[in-house]
Amino acid sequence: MKKLTILLLMFTYGSLANNARIDSLKLELTKVEGPAQVTLLNKISASYLRVNPDTSLFYAQKAYTLAETGALDDAFIVACNRMAAAYYYKGDYEQAVSYQHKALEVSKQMGDQQGIADAYNKLGAVYGYLGEYELSIDYALKASDIFKVIGDTIGLAGGIQSIGNARYNQGDFKEALRNFKRSHKLYSSAGDSFRATSLNNNIGLVYWNTGQYDSAVGYYMIAKEAYEAADDK
User: How many CA atoms lie within 13 Å of 113's alpha carbon, on the beta-carbon side?
Assistant: First the structure.
């Protein structure tokens, strides 16, 4: 059975475009200081995440220190998220969890419901990767409850997808399918065709693992055609 995981903070830039973006951000960084500098450091960290997690961590640490020293709570939360993501990509999940909890703690102090929900959702993703599925589901449910209250449809879809992933990895295909389809509907209603398309693969995997091969191939083909259509644009 293929294991499903969630990757944090996915970026889909082409390498040339990403390099140009990084160069532009670094040039801009030389012209600013204070809060603007922290914002740029966080953006550079995000741009490096998938190509060089060590460099991503380097810039996130700079942002973290400046934000902490300057009592810039919003930027500090972003820096914590960037560090958590970098550690996640480096395979240091203990540190990823630690910094995600720091983001959660500050979000709670600020009463930032969006930040709290995001932190819960990301913690659920990491715990799911670690195989702690019930803990993953617990955090995803907490996130989903808040996303529902604040009207964040895409966030809610992500929380439900996390639950589906955990149930799939537990072998509970009925619940996995139910959650994947709920998530697919929410992504579609919010106009997020990329994530909705990605979920067709997840749904196909469930059908494949339950011996419903025709349905599985049907969902794979829907996903394939959607990806090809997106590439043609």
Answer: 10
Residue 221 token pair: 């083909």
| Residue 83 and residue 103 in contact, taking contact as beta carbons nearer than 8 Å | no
Cα dihedral 67, 152, 120, 60, rounded to 10, equals -30
Count H helices and E strands in the chain, helices first: 11, 0
Specify the DSSP class assigned to residue 31: T
Give me the count of residues in the chain.
233
How is residue 188 written in tokens? 């579609």
Residue 17 pLDDT class (50, 70, 90 cuts):
low
Nearest CA to 78 among 114, 27, 51? 114
Query: For 108-132, what is each residue's pLDDT tens digit?
Result: 999 999 999 999 999 999 999 899 9
DSSP string, 159-213: HHHHHHHHHHHHT-HHHHHHHHHHHHHHHHHTT-HHHHHHHHHHHHHHHHHTT-H
Mean pLDDT of 202-219: 95
Helical packing angle, 193-209 and 213-232, nearest 10°: 160
pTM (predicted TM-score): 0.84
Q: Diameter of the chain by CA atoms?
A: 59
* Residues 190-204 as b or e (16 or more Cβ within 10 Å = b): bebeebbbbbbbbbb
What does the block give as tokens for 208? 């494949």
Q: What is the mean pLDDT of residues 77-82?
A: 96
What pLDDT does 225 receive?
80
What is residue 106's three-state secondary structure? Answer: helix
